[in-house]
Amino acid sequence: MELCDRSALDLAKMLKKRDISSREITESVFKRIDEDKGSINAFITLNREAAFKQADMADKKFSSKEKTPLLNGIPIAVKDNICTQQIETTCGSKILKNYIPPYNATVIKKILRDGAVLIGKTNMDEFAMGSSTENSSFGPVLNPLDVERVPGGSSGGSAAAVAAGQTVLAIGSDTGGSIRQPASFCGISGMKPTYGRVSRYGLISYASSLDQIGPLCRTVEDCSVLLNCICGHDENDTTSANITTPDFTEALKKDIKGMRIGLPKEYFVEGLDKNVKSNVMNAVNSLSRQGAEIVDISLPHTKYAISTYYLIATAEASSNLSRYDGVRYGLRTGGDVPDIINMYEKTRSEGFGSEVKRRIMLGTYVLSAGYYDAYYLKAQKARTLIKSDFDKAFEAVDCIVTPTSPSVAFKIGEKIEEPLQMYLVDIYTVSLNLAGLPGISVDCAENGGLPAGLQIIGKPFDEETVLQVAYAYQRIRGEN
Amino acid sequence: MDYDAVICFEVHAELDTESKLFCRCSTDSNSQPNTNVCPVCTAQPGALPVLNRKAVEYCVRAGLSLNCTIANHARFARKNYFYPDLPKGYQISQFEFPFCTDGYLEITGDDGNPYYVGIERVHLEEDAGKLLHSSGSLKTSKHSLVDFNRAGVPLIEIVADHTRNPLRSLKEARLYLEKIKQILQYVGVSRCRMETGELRCDANISIRPKGAKEFGDRVEMKNMASFKLVLEALSYEIKRQSEKLQAGETIIQETRMYDEENRVTVPMRSKENAPDYRYFPDPDLVEIDLDREFIKTVTDDTPELPEQKVDRIIKEYGIPKGDAVILTKEKGVSDYFIKCASLCRDRNRASKWIIKELFKLLNAASISIEKCPIIPERFSSLINLLSNGDITDSIGRTVLESMFDTGREPEDIINEKGLKPVQDTGMLREIVNEVIQENPGPVAQIRQGETKPIGYLIGQVMNKTGGRAHPKKTRELIDEGIRE
């Protein structure tokens, strides 16, 4: 196995023993990227020169006797909606092409502090709006497992890069499933932490009350290592939770015997692909064989999740994206326009792609005088109901298991003309964002078919249980 | 037909905090353009607001001073609109759940009785940046420049309640604005300098037939840079609306702005074109809980209100009420007086001299007491010289003027200008004797028990000494000379 295909934890062990150097790992990663010559198009910007410098610095740390964090010297790719000082950050949009942030996002500060090697910025659906990474201004990302298929989205570049060995670790963001769904399509592990667990400072907002940064990795163990690094209260983000953070790797050691796992009946209905369903059920059975107790539960308001999500997310987005007006940074078109209104219109018409425009228009409508109560306010009420469904369910179970997405990776172009069909891809993931809950997707496909995601959902700030169950399942799979 | 006016103000006051409302940038208004800026207040992608606690304290302090109820839970909302001085494309303001509601302000009504003007709310919001146009306006300019130093500076908005005792006349309007300014300055939340835009006000005005209960259609007025212009605009608008109604026309609900040059109000936008701000709770900021403890701390930290200060100045310093009211009208003046009161033996003299003499000089130079070149310590020295009878009032005035021009110690000026009082008893006695001999008439009157002519004799001595005779000593010597 090449270095670029190994897990971060494996590499960390080898680095510690000084069997290998961070430079060698970094070389291996860039070699893989160069071989691919951008055909899966996972990256928007590569950070080659700086990455080697960071790798050398990490190697130096190993030779000096100071204690090194687990991430020291490990390659990491970051979704291009997370601000990196002096490295172009486009959010997958023409409107931010050539935009160089004057500051680092909090998560970037944290991974750099721990000595991770920043490989580059990964491709994504423009402003994280999409489920297939076909909505990027920098071209679609292809699924490395089948280049005719999408990698999922919106963190498709991060997921594809991990799956293709073009990085070891990746960071993405998840507003309605944008980490978990691409993880599921690319056969890797991806986690959305509890809302407030990871600082959003420097994450370019799509929907502020739903957005959360999280890890995309080869293994659940790697997810817990990366989560350890990036989580924690941040005084620059008022919505980040001021609570102590456990060592998430510790949670993996516990076994799942006696664990009560809920199976919501609303998640196993029409629309769920037969194969995905059987993969998920097989996974559930193997968890049961490990001593977990499987409990049938109901989340009755699930049917409102998608519409609730699209009302709230677009309302917030319509306001969050107002700052892209051509005045201070990013694209400005129409040097010869008669007035500022024309400048706004030209800039935003040319700068935003069609899905972004669709959502801005929908969100603007939702917040408009006379419609606010019927849409935005009602959606907030539905959100409360969805959240209380989970609260009730968690009185009886420790975690909940569902499919991540109703299907495996679909063909490129298959749904791009059908926004509503595309929206339904997120039917199993959006509820967690609405309720602020942590969730992980791990691969549960059998017999070498296309990957399928098993989603494990936890109580607020109980990432430990989520990781514990996911890890237990991954071990069972490894043993088989 | 006679009409009653219904006037309602929305007053914006810039808070006097060190840093901006949602970031750590300085609020200093004298900095070079775009130097007090950061990712948050220039709305870089991904930057998030963090609330300035001090600004909340100041907003609550203002609310308490205006007799408001302080909310247990408050929220910020986004007011969405595009304008190049507004970096995020929305202003963070408050909509539902402001910090302070249901207050009132007491003024003296036109009938001479106390009138409690209803205040709907006091809320906290951020200011926008400043635009600099190459010519005229954003519309007419070839290009415009933006300075984001002011973007994110905290403002409070004080919204009057038109249903609870609205203002009824220009006189009441003026009293209301003056009092708001006075209170905000007193409790230390804003400096309220209108000339630098720290205080801004919009006005809603409608008229209705005298005694009518129903409100007329309102006109909102913007763009008035001083109290004087506000009153001018209101006066024009009352006249315009009355004439319309007299002529059987209706008032169009619209926003108008005051054209200073031509002294008229002109339409800005109609009600149909009013923007839809699409307010919604800002998801980047959590709901704020204000517990009783916090409110108590703010209450305890709030400096005394003008009324309280009037009482204190009467009680502690023995100043007559009329003067105490004048001294407290502006916080700077009362601060100045209180400083002097601690240094002067004769506080009443200090008060009189501030009101009569110092004000005259300040007004003539049109500067505020904060910028007065005479520091209270030196002013007090002068008052003490007067109280000692070391110099006469007229020399005192000369010295004060010179102090005002130079800022120097009174003693230095007295020495330099040769205004030193004649204290030499021998020399003074000679002059007194001269005067007694030259004025046998008044001397005879005094000997018969009249006191009035003593003043006349003192005046004569002053004339002969160029006003420098020591007044007390002169009087003693006159008494002596006449008795002999």
Secondary structure tally: strands of chain B = 16
Strand proportion of chain B, as a percent range, falls in 15-25%
Largest interface: A-B, 46 and 30 residues
The radius of gyration computed from the alpha-carbon positions of chain A, rounded to a whole number of angstroms, is: 21 Å
The largest sheet of chain A is: 11 strands, mixed
Could you describe the largest sheet of chain B, including whether it forms a barrel?
Answer: 9 strands, mixed
| Continuous helix count of chain A | 16
The general outline of chain A is globular
Globular, elongated, flat, extended or rod-shaped: what is the shape of chain B? Answer: elongated
Helix-strand makeup class of chain B:
alpha+beta
Instruction: Count the E strands of chain A.
Output: 11
> Briefly, what CATH class of the domain at 3-254 in chain A?
Alpha Beta
pLDDT < 50 stretches of chain A: none
List its traits.
heterodimer, A: 480 residues, alpha/beta, Amidase signature (AS) enzymes, 16 helices, 39% helix, globular, B: 484 residues, alpha+beta, Arc Repressor Mutant, subunit A, 3 domains, nine-stranded mixed beta sheet
In words, what does this structure look like?
- The complex is a heterodimer of chains A (480) and B (484).
- By secondary structure, chain A is of the alpha/beta class.
- Chain A has a domain at 3-254: Amidase signature (AS) enzymes, CATH 3.90.1300.
- Chain A is built from 16 helices and 11 strands.
- Chain A has helices spanning 8-16, 22-36, 48-63, 106-113, 156-163, 180-186, 220-230, 248-251, 274-289, 305-320, 340-351, 354-367, 373-396, 419-424, 430-435, 463-479; strands at residues 43-46, 75-79, 117-122, 169-174, 189-192, 212-217, 260-264, 293-297, 399-403, 439-443, 453-458.
- An 11-stranded mixed beta sheet of chain A has the order 1-3-2-4-6-5-10-11-9-7-8, with helices on both faces.
- The mean pLDDT of chain A is 96.
- With 484 residues, chain B is an alpha+beta fold.
- Chain B folds into 3 domains: 3-296, no CATH class; 304-416, no CATH class; 425-483, Arc Repressor Mutant, subunit A.
- Chain B has helices at 53-65, 170-186, 227-246, 292-301, 306-317, 321-328, 331-341, 347-365, 376-387, 393-406, 410-416, 425-438, 440-447, 452-465, 471-483; strands spanning 3-14, 69-70, 73-74, 77-80, 90-93, 100-108, 114-126, 130-133, 144-147, 154-160, 199-209, 219-222, 254-259, 264-270, 280-281, 288-289.
- Chain B has a 9-stranded mixed beta sheet.
- In chain B, helix 2 (170-186) packs antiparallel against helix 3 and helix 13 (440-447) runs antiparallel to helix 14 (452-465).
- The termini of chain B are far apart.
- The chains are: A alpha/beta (480), B alpha+beta (484).
